[in-house]
Amino acid sequence: QMCIRDSTIALLREYRLEKKPIVQSNKNLIFGNTKIELTTKTPWSPPDTDLYYEIGALWLFLDFHDKGKIGPEYLIECKNLDIKPVAIPHREEILNYFSGQIDQTDSIDPNFNANQSNLKKRDRKEQKTADLDSVVKKVKGSDEQGTKKVTEESKEGGGGGTGTGEDKQEQDIEQQALKEKKKIALQALKYEKPLESKSICLKKLGKNYTFVFDFFPKVSAEGEKAGETGGSKITLLQKILRSPQNPKPIIIVPSLPIAGSLNLVNARDFLEKGEYKDPTKIQENALTRKVSFKRAINGKGVIFEVVDSIIHLKEDDWKRVIAVFVLGSNYEFKGWPMADNLATMFSKIRGYYMKYRDAPENEIVKKWNVKTLYLKRNKRYDDISIFREFWADLELSLIHI
After folding, report:
1. Hey, which residues does 25 pair with through a beta bridge?
2. Mean per-residue pLDDT for 231-242?
């Protein structure tokens, strides 16, 4: 009855609850900067079974459930990806856990070991090696043995005047050094986001982690210094958020309502919730020239502005423009600062072209460095996958140094 924080399970649940994009690429799942193979075993193992579901099996079931396609199409895709379908008796608990309705479940095995997932649970428990607590005990025992040795040496060298005082001082120095190492370790753990348990990582043969005590203080100090001095290695998003006037990234959309594209009346629903609505069927408010929405980027809430005109954008505002949705016209960039060099503009501002998949291709757009997002005309349950694809791409440009 525990939720293992440092596991693929936690990563999948976090991305599901926060509606972060999960991208499938060949035989991998991409969570931000983390790539995990579809066949990676997870701790999800229903009670009284020796089955451990792979990350791909859980993800695919949840994804197809979102689309309302749990049927023959789901089974066909499982076969195509060589993934075991989620058994019907196990589905309800998976849905409840990954939707946040429950926080604890007996289906997460606290004794999970990826290297022993093919063994039966009972056999694996018997073969389980020392975990982090036992490692700490070994280190502690080593420290006690060292202290005992120092004490015995001080007794042997006994009556030599100041010998005992010098040994005492040496012990104090060692104890102080140990405290400093523990302090460094605690600081390092704040930045830890592992995908396996500490015990699994620590007990791998040939691994030595003493370098952390020298490496982390140096990196931490450099990071603090860069933050104080405004170091050069910062992301586009960080530059925008540090703006004292208006720290909000800007997305520009077309002003015309075109079926299959975005404009101001339907942009918020799609960019915030992944719900596409045909702008030609929505009554437009002529007074609305800007909308805002909030999205979590790397765990931090960021407010985005969406505009359909550049008339009110000042020179500093252009530094906040991160994306533009295009229609594919030679005249749509008239009056833009980089209209005479679209190659440069699309290298600084991410371009997107949204259309219905069955609509004709735009020959002009093919010449531009923009990403095309294909909507299915009559399948709105597929919009969420396009929404995730968009944010996976845009977030990459926002956090890239």
Report:
1. 28
2. 80
Backbone angles phi, psi at 356, to 5 degrees: -70, 140
- The SS3 of residue 259 is coil
Q: Tally Cβ neighbours within 10 Å of residue 292.
A: 11
Query: Which residues lie closer than 8 Å to 257 by C-beta, 6 or more apart?
Result: 263, 265, 279, 280, 282, 284
Tokens 């450099």 locate to 222
77, 102 Cβ separation under 8 angstroms: no
The DSSP result for 97-162, as a single string, is HHTTS-S--TTB-TT--GGGTTS-HHHHHHH----HHHHHHHHHHHHHHHHHHHHHHHHHTTTSTT
% of the chain at pLDDT higher than 70: 72
pLDDT for position 269: 94
Return d(Cα 125, Cα 3) in angstroms, integer. Answer: 18
Tokens at 227, concatenated: 């933050």
pLDDT digits over 376-391, tens only?
A: 999 898 899 999 999 9
What is the average per-residue pLDDT within 30-40?
89
| Residue in this structure with the two tokens 């045909």, named with its chain if needed | 278
The CA-CA-CA angle for residues 221, 225, 230, to 5°, reads 150
Rounded CA-CA distance 258/260 in Å is: 6
Phi, psi of 382 (to 5 degrees): -85, -10
